Amino acid sequence: MLLTDPIRMLPSLLLPLAGVLFLGGFSPGSFVWAAMAVVGSVAFAAVRWVTFTYQIVGDRLELTRSLISRSVRTIPLERIRGVDISAPPLHRLLGIAVLRIDTGAGGADKQEGELDGVTVEEGERLKAVLLWHARARTARRVQARGAASVAGAASTADSGSDELASGVPTRVREEAAGSSTRHEVGDTTPERVFFVMPRKWLAYGPLSGAYLLTPFALVAGAVGLAFQWGSEFRIDRRVVLGAGEWIWEHPPLLIAALVLLVLAMPVIAVIMYAVFNWDFTLRASEGYLIAGRGLVTRRSVSLERRRVRGFEFVEGPAERRAGVGRAWAIVTGLGDSETRGQLMPVAPRDVVLDVVGEAIGPIATGLRPHPPAARRRRLFRAIFPWLVIAACTVPAALLWSGFWWALAAPALFLALLGVPLGLDRYRSLGHTYDGSRLSVRSGSLRRSQAVVERRAVVGWTLSQTWFQRRAGLLTVTAGVGAGTGGYAAIDVGEAEGPAFAAEVTPRWLTPFLIPDIQDIPGIPDASGTRETPTSGGSLPL
Fold it and tell me: Where is the region Disordered (predicted)?
């Protein structure tokens, strides 16, 4: 820690140290001041190391720091949602790691703990201990609550529906059933490996736009760095602007630079994909899904399977054409789910769906199509904005200056491109419900299909814009206490939208629906059967 802490503080010290050396003219005195700053950072690291302790006391983890004022952070063990272990390059070289505790607080530091500098063996031991305690205590609490509810409802076992008859909320009974004796003291479950990424699949890196645009991001970052730190290193901003103007005045050099960047895109994409997803492994152990990956920084993320409520399958245009995709878990109480919830990186679609199907459940098929009015809206939104720009710039280019063609030509091209884009967006729309899980899909440049368990739905939002009201459409959003917080079926018919929501949670909506419940498509009638939703008609709320 006396080595890693000062090096971690180096970026924040770089500018002050450079300023001291430049202002002092690289004199012996300036080097003395710079050396004192380095020694001070080492001393600060030593004090932080000496004054920090951690211990498990009863049902909580206590992190104590007494640097200037004493502070004690307490984390209840039953609140722990996951424990992540990461090892940056220097940590890996020294045989230490960073252990982070996720409590699902949602913020950067709220109710979360971090142990930076524990040995790899200690990190793995602590991870096992914390997850075991959290799982065991939660299981005992859920079992006790379920047993008490069942005992209290024994007298009403013959009345009402299954849930009302038992007197036990469905979610409580599901949690009690899922928290079996395997969580009790001394009991273990075998580890199961779902997926280990082959090295040859690193070639899928260029199919992801985020990795493919890395060369341009590096160039933009270098230019921004030159403008921000140029004065510290006595680089005049006018020199940077002059270099840019000189390159612009020499088109062959500019074209060569662009060609090199384009040629470097797939190579750097493969490198970046390998850096983040090297030896990606997904396995299950002791009630947790554990994903490990990384070449430079190795990271292991644990997701409590009892809190997994579904998954999201994502694919872009190039990925769809190549038959690949990605998947994220939808987990309740998970902070930073966009990165920590990743189940599969870019990989063949069939493999991704097979692995996710084994770990969580199969993807929903047979999505219900949306009305033709939704196709018109998709086309309008993809074409109309560019037509407006073209309508304004083409007359200007013909009447005033040819400079306006620089805007008119791309606008016309994008308007033409909007036709296949709008049609693809319409084909991507869909929703369905199979009795236990609902699924919604939308998007083209980033087509996403979310599959969510019914028990995860905590509310509904039915919304209409002015244009949707004119087209007889609405958007139905299922509120979910997991993932992004809500998943929307976009541009559903006015009849199908409320029927879809009532089909998933009939008791929440049927009191507010007219006409009579037996006549509403997709909603259980008096006999308990469901009718298939049909298009047309109206379903007022």
Answer: 152-185
Tokens at 329, concatenated: 């878990």
Q: Identify the CA nearest to 261 among candidates 223, 215, 220.
A: 215
What angle in degrees, to the nearest 10, is found between the helix axes of 4-23 and 28-50? 160
Q: What is the DSSP string of 78-109?
A: GG--EEEEEE-HHHHHHTEEEEEEE-S--SSS
- Residue 131 and residue 83 in contact, taking contact as beta carbons nearer than 8 Å: yes
State which H helix or E strand residue 412 sits in. Answer: helix 405-428
- Report for 119-123, 332-336, 529-533: range of highest mean pLDDT: 119-123
Residue 350 neighbours by CB under 8 Å, 6+ apart: 323
Which residue has tokens 């993320």? 301
Q: Which residues contact 93 (CB under 8 A, 6 or more apart)?
A: none
Nearest to 307 by CA among 262, 347, 341: 341
pTM over 0.85: no
Q: What is the pLDDT of residues 419-456, one digit of tens each?
A: 999 999 999 999 999 889 999 999 998 999 999 999 99
Tell me the torsion sign for CA atoms 344, 348, 349, 355: negative
Contact call for residues 495 and 537 (beta carbons, < 8 A): yes
Sign of torsion over alpha carbons 91, 92, 97, 100: positive
The angle, 0 to 180 degrees and rounded to 10, between the axes of the packed helices 214-229 and 251-277 is: 110
CA 274 to centroid of chain Cα atoms: 19
Angle (deg, nearest 10), helices 120-152 and 170-178: 130
Q: 488-492: long-range contacts (C-beta < 8 A, 24 or more apart)?
A: 488/440, 488/442, 489/429, 489/431, 489/440, 489/442, 490/370, 490/374, 490/429, 490/442, 491/370, 491/371, 491/373, 491/374, 491/377, 491/378, 491/429, 492/370, 492/371, 492/374, 492/431
Please state, in angstroms and rounded to a whole number, the distance separating the CA atoms of residues 116 and 124: 13
Residue position matching structure tokens 């929440």: 508
What mean pLDDT is predicted for residues 445-470?
A: 92
pLDDT tens digits, 28-78: 766 777 777 777 778 888 888 888 889 888 888 888 888 777 888 888 887
Entry field: residues in the chain = 541
pLDDT tens per residue, range 278-318: 999 999 887 788 899 988 888 888 888 888 899 999 998 88
| 281-285/60-65 β-pairing | unpaired
